[in-house]
Structure formats: C-alpha cells, structure tokens
Specification:
single chain, about 375 residues, alpha/beta, TIM Barrel, 2 domains, 17 helices, about 50% helix
C-alpha cells in the first residue's frame, strides 16, 4: 500500500509539472551535484531510471562531477574540452553510485553503462572481492534458514528452530551482533561460532546460487575499469560500521588499506570514499579524520540531499534509490522533492521510507 501511495504522489509531482519546476530551480540555483545511491542492479527498474535520468541530467563519474563542482585545480582540473562541454550542457550534474560491489553490478549495470553511454561509480570492499563470500548483512537470514538443529542456545538465549518465528528470532540476533560488532575479528568469530552451533545445511539458498548476495571478483573489476564506463571508489576493507570499531588503529586501517589495495590493483588513484551505512551516527570526527589522513579527496554519506560548492567534501549527500522503485519516485527524489515533502509533518511515512529504504538490502 505504501509503495502505491508513493507512486501516486510521485505521479502527481511529475504530471503537474512540479518535478520539472524543481529541476529548473536547481539549475538556476548554481552548481549542484545529485548523487543517487544504489546497491544491487538487476531484477528491477534500473533501465527505466536511466532512460529518464539521462534525458534530464548530465550523468558523470563521481570524481569528474565533484572536481567540476569544487572547481578543482591540479591533476583533476577540467580540460578545455570538458570545460567547454560543461558550459554547453546546463543540466544538473548527476552521479549513479552503487555501494558494495554486487556481482550484478558487473552482469547488468555494466551492460547498461556501456550500451547507453552512462557513467557509473561502484564503491568496493576488497576483502569481499578476495574472499567471494556472501556479504555479512545476509548471514543472519541465511543461517536462520539453513539451521538443522531443532533447538539452540545462542548468546544466552534459547531458540526453538522448528518454526518460522524461532528462525526469524535467531536471524535477528545474529544480525544485531554482527552489525554492532566492535571489530572485524569479533564479527567473524561470532559468525563462525553461530555456524557451528546451528549445524548449517551446506546448501545455500537460491539467492546465493543466483549471485544476488555475492560480490564481484577482481577480474570483473579490472574488466570494467578498462572499459571506462564504470569507475571505482573505496568502501573499507571489510565493511565494518566505522564508528562502532573500538580500536582506532583498526578503524584507520579499514579506511587506508582499502585505498592502497584498490590503487595497487587498478593502477591509478582512488580519491573517493563511501562510509558504510553512512548516516550521522556512523560517522564521527575520528572517522572523518581517518578518511582525510588516508588521502581521499571526497567522502559520501547516505544523508539525503543535493551537494553545492559549500557542502563539506567529507560529508557529501546522496539520494537513496532502489531498483524496485518506480521511475516516477526516482524522478521526484533526484529533483529533491522527497526531502521537501519529508519536512512536512503530514507525511511522516515518506521520511521513514527515504531514510531507511536500503537497510535490509545493503549497507
């Protein structure tokens, strides 16, 4: 029901001309960069999103868009041709970002980028590129589904795993423990203990077989990088929530080592970083300083908004997007209308939908 209401509201915005008016106002307001934040790519409406967005926005790689926004000097300065292009194309700059590096970013988003000449940027987690394992935020659900024991005591709680309620409860416990882990080692140790205790079935579910929960591999990254339509940024080595890591040295390694590994593999600088989860409570001054010290020029949050030259380059805003959303909903989001509507107390469910839209899919 909520999804239908959002589409209806977005349709009213679009067909009344409000979306077009918002786009015009954004262009008139000075330099702006809209950054859309996706995760997975296949099985939804991404093509419809792209067909709309490329008509109305100047889609760019994240580094090119931000260098232009901040009138970057030095090695990132615009060439004469790029400067002339910017003067001719008055559309608002827009960046398509994909966090985590799912395999379908290679299988599907790459094809769209190439076939429709649309630049994209993917934020990678080298630890998962190397291991090929399922992302940790799917482990709770997977373990609850695959547990073969009928009864289990985990973290001092007893779970009856003969019914869906018990399996859901143990899945939630696992997810909470790994989400709030104070170190990557503790997270992995807990997952290993839970796996042994639950006597997991060796068979993964269909989503694992289809690759829906799995990362790309290095060969995919290098192939995409060589083609040029997809660029890459850093998303930590193992995707911990940085503000929860108690050892500052470990937190800093997650940030800096990611850059080092990516640059070594790709053979060129990596200048942008995306914070895991990326809300205000996940980013403190210590985390931001680690990002600066590692040598990144820009860092992206998941705070809703559009970026201006006055935006802190280490707290860049993004608009949450999802392949399951109707293109009308994405059109309203890119134009900034959901941010405006969410400030109106008479539609609180929109605020909830657009601040937590991706919690279950990726982080």
């Amino acid at each position: 029901m909520r999804k239908k209401v959002l589409i209806w509201i977005a349709g009213c915005f679009y067909y009344s001309g409000l979306v077009a008016l918002a786009r015009w106002w954004t262009r008139r307001s000075g330099p702006r960069v809209v950054v859309l934040n996706y995760h997975t790519a296949q099985g939804g409406n991404l093509l419809q999103h792209i067909l709309y967005l490329r008509r109305h926005y100047r889609i760019m790689h994240v580094e090119a868009a931000l260098a232009e926004l901040y009138a970057q000097e030095g090695p990132l300065a615009l060439t004469t041709n790029e400067s002339n292009e910017a003067k001719k194309d008055h559309r608002t700059r827009l960046v398509l970002t994909f966090d985590d590096g799912y395999i379908d970013n290679y299988r599907y988003a790459r094809e769209l980028a190439r076939d429709y000449c649309v630049p994209m940027t993917v934020y990678l987690i080298p630890g998962y590129l190397e291991s090929g394992q399922r992302f940790w935020w799917f482990e709770g659900e997977s373990m609850g589904h695959r547990a073969r024991v009928r009864q289990a005591i985990l973290d001092g709680r007893s779970f009856n795993l003969t019914n869906d309620e018990g399996r859901s409860a143990v899945a939630q416990l696992i997810d909470d423990r790994v989400r709030f882990a104070k170190s990557v080692a503790k997270r992995e140790d807990f997952l290993a203990q839970a796996s042994a205790l639950l006597d997991l079935s060796p068979d993964a579910d269909e989503r694992d077989h289809d690759g829906e929960r799995l990362p790309m591999r290095w060969e995919h990254v290098l192939e995409m990088d060589a083609e040029g339509w997809v660029s890459f940024g850093a998303h930590t080595m193992h995707h911990p929530i940085l503000s929860y890591i108690t050892d500052v040295a470990e937190m800093r390694r997650e940030v800096s080592q990611c850059k080092e590994v990516l640059e070594q593999r790709l053979g060129h600088p990596v200048r942008s970083f995306a914070y895991p989860l990326g809300q205000a409570q996940h980013i403190d001054a210590v985390v931001i300083q680690a990002v600066k010290d590692a040598g990144y020029r820009w860092a992206l949050t998941t705070t809703y908004g559009v970026n201006t030259p006055e935006t802190d380059p280490y707290r860049l805003k993004r608009v949450e997007a999802d392949i399951d959303q109707h293109w009308l909903v994405v059109a309203a989001g890119a134009a900034g209308l959901w941010g405006f509507v969410a400030r109106l107390r008479w539609l609180p469910f929109i605020r909830k939908n657009f601040t937590n839209s991706q919690r279950s899919k990726a982080l």
